[in-house]
Amino acid sequence: MTSLQTRSVDEAQRPKSLYRRVLLKVSGEVLMGEQPFGIDLATLDAVAADIADVAARGVELCLVIGGGNIFRGLSLAGKGMERASADYMGMLATVMNALALQSALEKIGVDTRVQSAIPMDAVCEPYIRRRALRHLEQGRVVIFAAGLGAPFFTTDTGAALRAAEMGCEALFKGTSVDGVYSADPKFHPNAERYERLSYMDVLSRDLRVMDASSISLMRDNGIPIVVFSIRKRGAFLEVLGGGGLHTVIGPEIAN
Ligand code: UDP
């Protein structure tokens, strides 16, 4: 399907999303499926299908994908490798995931571009803000790879920065759990899921949804963060329409 066809399908169905342009951050771990490492192709295809459903409704989509399924800088640094080198390896892992997701999306007719914060011309486009904006306007899904292109950061921070730069109305964080809980629901079955939290709640209670610098950046720019389970099929579209299980992190509600 070309981007033009995607957009014509869209207009009729547009009211289904509350948002016009969003960024979806998917952690690398999600792509592992039930495997201990790497990319599970069935999971990759399922995530791509959910993204395609949203793109077909005319929502302009930015994607940021982590690298934790392949490589995390901190874990090798913990074993004695120089932190900056380990982080660069982590960033390269995100490029691999971005290419995998691009391939899965294009296979089902979604027009995409990968832009990397570390230029690698033979593989993908370099990150150029105005070019990325143009792709979005053309109905292409833009996948941002290599985080910020700087060590000592994470792809969460990269996602927050790109969401602000691209003028996204919300940052969707697709995780393995359907929102933010008072304790890890895997180990605490009675843990409470929050419907809504303020940026300050997350920071002051150290809820570890995303790192503190990403939360601060979203707070400074007034961009809400929506946490939901990307493992549940169809949840992305449902949550974009305001339904399904999720937690919204936004400004303090005045009493
Ligand atoms: N990374 C980095 N700078 C960035 C983005 C990522 O150094 O701007 C490195 C860091 O080592 C990180 C790894 O890339 O551990 C993979 O990203 P992340 O851990 O955020 O992936 P996720 O947890 O989302 O799968």
Description:
With 255 residues, this protein is α/β, with parallel strands linked by helices. It has nine helices and nine strands. The protein has helices at 3-13, 41-55, 73-78, 83-107, 129-137, 155-165, 199-204, 212-221, 235-240, and strands at 21-26, 60-65, 112-116, 125-126, 141-145, 170-175, 196-198, 225-229, 247-250. It has a nine-stranded mixed β-sheet, with helices on both faces. Helix 2 crosses helix 4 and helix 6 (155-165) runs parallel beside helix 8. The termini are far apart. Mean pLDDT is 92; it is low at 1-11.
Summarize the entry for a quick read.
With 255 residues, this protein is α/β, with parallel strands linked by helices.
Overview features:
binds uridine-5'-diphosphate; 9-stranded mixed β-sheet; 255 residues; alpha/beta
Topology at a glance:
Blueprint: H1 3-13, E1 21-26, H2 41-55, E2 60-65, H3 73-78, H4 83-107, E3 112-116, E4 125-126, H5 129-137, E5 141-145, H6 155-165, E6 170-175, E7 196-198, H7 199-204, H8 212-221, E8 225-229, H9 235-240, E9 247-250
Parallel strand pairs: 1-2, 1-6, 2-5, 3-4, 3-5, 6-8, 7-9
Antiparallel strand pairs: 8-9
Helix pairs in contact: 2-4, 6-8
Bound molecules: uridine-5'-diphosphate (UDP).
Output the structural class: alpha/beta
| Lateral arrangement of strands in the main beta sheet | 4-3-5-2-1-6-8-9-7
Unreliable spans: 1-11
Beta content: 15-25%
Beta strands, count: 9
The biggest beta sheet, please? 9 strands, mixed
Question: What average pLDDT do the residues reach?
Answer: 92
What is the H/E order? HEHEHHEEHEHEEHHEHE
